[in-house]
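Worked example 2:
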Amino acid sequence: MTDDSAPIPIRQARATDVDAIRACAEQAYAPYIPRIGRAPAPMAADFAALVARGVVWVATGADGGLLGFVSFWPEGDHVYLDSVAVRPEAAGRGLGKALIRFCEARARANGFGTVALYTNAAMTENQRIYPRLGYVEVDRCEDDGFDRVFYEKRLT
């Protein structure tokens, strides 16, 4: 999976994936708790409900085990990228980028020209990653008790 051109299996999440998705989110986001002062919003997500809505997709390894996930859905005139997480042992191999690109491809295929997202200001790594992927910062503000940085990417 170190080669960006190698296909990464991504499929729609199933109810049987919920525990693995939750564990992935906890592992991926827990390191940010000391910086933020509390659990990041994705750690409190209702993954069973999101999976039931059909808005979560999982990346799997050769053995079928979950390596990461992305959740996104249409919101008005854009697709909202809610969360992307990769298990720590799978990090650094392009999986997060592949999941984001998957979201963008689905958005394009469904006629959307923009993907929007936000990240916590304390997640400084994301503020380096998203611009490299073509996302532009459009706002910063306190939202739902978190200091958030909002990004958009035009897909056209």
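The beta strands are 10-12, 56-60, 66-75, 78-86, 114-120, 136-143, 146-154. The chain has five helices and seven strands.
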